[in-house]
Amino acid sequence: MRTHTCGELRPEHAGQTVTLCGWADTVRDHGGLIFIDLRDRYGLTQVTFDPRDSQAAWDAAQAARGEYVLRITGVVQPRPPEMVNPKLATGGIEIRGAAIEALNRAQPPPFPLEDEKAKKKSPRICA
Protein backbone atom coordinates (compact mmCIF):
# COMPACT_ATOMS: atom_id res chain seq x y z
CA MET A 1 0.00 0.00 0.00
CA ARG A 2 2.93 2.35 0.72
CA THR A 3 6.66 2.35 0.08
CA HIS A 4 7.69 4.64 2.97
CA THR A 5 6.28 6.23 6.08
CA CYS A 6 5.71 9.97 6.35
CA GLY A 7 8.68 10.40 8.67
CA GLU A 8 11.50 8.62 6.88
CA LEU A 9 12.23 10.44 3.61
CA ARG A 10 15.37 12.57 3.42
CA PRO A 11 17.30 14.43 0.68
CA GLU A 12 19.18 11.22 -0.21
CA HIS A 13 15.85 9.81 -1.46
CA ALA A 14 15.63 12.55 -4.15
CA GLY A 15 14.49 11.22 -7.50
CA GLN A 16 12.72 8.17 -6.07
CA THR A 17 9.05 7.53 -6.80
CA VAL A 18 7.32 6.83 -3.49
CA THR A 19 3.85 6.09 -2.19
CA LEU A 20 2.76 7.43 1.20
CA CYS A 21 -0.44 6.86 3.17
CA GLY A 22 -1.72 9.03 5.97
CA TRP A 23 -4.05 11.76 7.12
CA ALA A 24 -4.22 15.17 5.50
CA ASP A 25 -2.91 17.36 8.30
CA THR A 26 -3.33 20.59 6.33
CA VAL A 27 -4.42 21.40 2.78
CA ARG A 28 -3.36 24.77 1.35
CA ASP A 29 -4.04 26.28 -2.07
CA HIS A 30 -1.40 28.86 -3.02
CA GLY A 31 -2.76 30.18 -6.28
CA GLY A 32 -2.28 27.18 -8.51
CA LEU A 33 -0.10 24.97 -6.33
CA ILE A 34 -1.74 22.82 -3.68
CA PHE A 35 0.24 21.77 -0.62
CA ILE A 36 -0.83 18.85 1.55
CA ASP A 37 0.98 18.04 4.77
CA LEU A 38 0.48 14.29 5.08
CA ARG A 39 1.00 12.69 8.49
CA ASP A 40 1.13 9.25 9.97
CA ARG A 41 2.36 7.97 13.31
CA TYR A 42 5.98 8.34 12.12
CA GLY A 43 6.00 11.95 10.98
CA LEU A 44 4.85 14.51 8.44
CA THR A 45 5.76 15.04 4.78
CA GLN A 46 4.83 17.95 2.52
CA VAL A 47 3.37 17.07 -0.88
CA THR A 48 2.87 19.58 -3.71
CA PHE A 49 0.43 19.29 -6.60
CA ASP A 50 0.81 21.29 -9.80
CA PRO A 51 -1.85 21.12 -12.54
CA ARG A 52 0.94 21.21 -15.15
CA ASP A 53 2.17 17.83 -13.85
CA SER A 54 -1.23 16.12 -13.58
CA GLN A 55 -4.57 17.88 -13.84
CA ALA A 56 -6.38 14.82 -12.41
CA ALA A 57 -4.10 14.68 -9.35
CA TRP A 58 -4.43 18.44 -8.84
CA ASP A 59 -8.25 18.21 -9.03
CA ALA A 60 -8.27 15.39 -6.46
CA ALA A 61 -5.88 17.30 -4.19
CA GLN A 62 -8.10 20.36 -4.41
CA ALA A 63 -11.04 18.24 -3.16
CA ALA A 64 -9.05 16.88 -0.18
CA ARG A 65 -9.81 18.21 3.29
CA GLY A 66 -8.21 17.92 6.70
CA GLU A 67 -8.29 14.42 8.19
CA TYR A 68 -9.01 12.70 4.86
CA VAL A 69 -7.06 9.45 4.67
CA LEU A 70 -4.98 9.63 1.50
CA ARG A 71 -2.62 7.52 -0.56
CA ILE A 72 -0.25 9.73 -2.54
CA THR A 73 2.34 8.75 -5.13
CA GLY A 74 5.00 11.14 -6.35
CA VAL A 75 8.68 11.88 -6.74
CA VAL A 76 10.89 12.99 -3.85
CA GLN A 77 12.64 16.28 -4.53
CA PRO A 78 14.89 18.37 -2.34
CA ARG A 79 13.46 21.66 -1.17
CA PRO A 80 15.25 24.82 -2.26
CA PRO A 81 17.66 25.96 0.51
CA GLU A 82 15.44 28.91 1.47
CA MET A 83 12.43 26.56 1.84
CA VAL A 84 14.06 23.92 4.09
CA ASN A 85 12.16 23.48 7.35
CA PRO A 86 14.68 22.56 10.07
CA LYS A 87 11.85 21.92 12.54
CA LEU A 88 10.81 18.79 10.60
CA ALA A 89 12.83 15.62 10.15
CA THR A 90 11.51 15.58 6.56
CA GLY A 91 11.95 19.35 6.15
CA GLY A 92 14.64 18.98 3.51
CA ILE A 93 12.36 17.32 0.96
CA GLU A 94 8.90 17.44 -0.53
CA ILE A 95 6.97 15.07 -2.74
CA ARG A 96 5.92 16.25 -6.20
CA GLY A 97 2.47 14.62 -6.27
CA ALA A 98 1.55 12.59 -9.36
CA ALA A 99 -1.44 10.62 -8.05
CA ILE A 100 -3.74 10.89 -5.06
CA GLU A 101 -6.49 8.62 -3.82
CA ALA A 102 -8.90 9.36 -0.98
CA LEU A 103 -9.08 6.13 1.00
CA ASN A 104 -11.52 7.66 3.47
CA ARG A 105 -13.23 11.03 3.57
CA ALA A 106 -13.76 12.65 6.95
CA GLN A 107 -16.28 15.10 8.28
CA PRO A 108 -14.72 18.27 9.69
CA PRO A 109 -13.75 17.58 13.31
CA PRO A 110 -15.81 19.46 15.92
CA PHE A 111 -12.58 20.87 17.40
CA PRO A 112 -9.01 21.36 16.11
CA LEU A 113 -6.81 18.31 16.43
CA GLU A 114 -3.37 18.93 17.92
CA ASP A 115 -0.36 16.83 18.69
CA GLU A 116 1.10 16.60 22.19
CA LYS A 117 3.74 19.29 21.51
CA ALA A 118 1.09 21.76 20.35
CA LYS A 119 -1.03 21.01 23.42
CA LYS A 120 1.91 21.79 25.71
CA LYS A 121 2.49 25.14 23.99
CA SER A 122 -1.19 26.17 24.08
CA PRO A 123 -2.71 27.42 27.31
CA ARG A 124 -5.60 25.27 28.43
CA ILE A 125 -8.80 27.10 29.11
CA CYS A 126 -11.16 25.39 31.50
CA ALA A 127 -14.61 26.63 32.35
- As residue ranges, the low-confidence spans are 119-127
Strand order of the largest sheet: 1-2-3-5-4
Shape: globular
Count of the separate structural domains = 1
Topology order in helix (H) and strand (E) letters: EEEHEEH
* Main structural class: mainly beta
Query: Largest sheet, if any?
Result: 5 strands, mixed, barrel
Radius of gyration equals 15 Å
CATH arch. level architecture: Beta Barrel
Description of the structure:
This protein is mainly beta and 127 residues long. The chain has a single domain (11-121), classed as Beta Barrel (OB fold (Dihydrolipoamide Acetyltransferase, E2P)). It is built from two helices and five strands. It has helices at 55-63, 116-121, and strands spanning 17-30, 33-40, 43-49, 69-78, 93-104. A five-stranded mixed β-barrel has the order 1-2-3-5-4. The chain starts with 16 loop residues before the first strand and ends in a 6-residue tail after the last helix. The model is unreliable at 119-127 (pLDDT under 50).
Overview in brief:
This protein is mainly β. The chain has 2 helices and 5 strands, in the order E-E-E-H-E-E-H.
